[in-house]
Amino acid sequence: MHLSVTRPAYNTGTGFFVLNGGVYDANGNEFVIRGINQNQWWGNPTENYNAIDHVAKTGANAVRAVFFKDLEAPSASGSDTPAERRAIVEKYVADNVVPIVEDHGATEN
Asked: What are the domain boundaries of the chain?
């Protein structure tokens, strides 16, 4: 039986929190990442966005959402604008998948 924990009094947040080396959701349930990678940059932006619903169907509870900002030249590909990125993140959240955003332009990996 899994028991939830209480958010520490010093933590005044409302979302995830850390306690004794564990990560917990807002309800105090332990959160163990079971996730996959999903590209939101290369390829067709519409297909990438539509793939979000399929990520949720895999049973993943988190996703590494890969973004990239083409700093050298504008591109018709990818999700460059803050509004596009926000819509993607909100779609993952609506599907109960925690988005872990990676800006590939910063990591280049």
From this structure: 1-31, 33-107
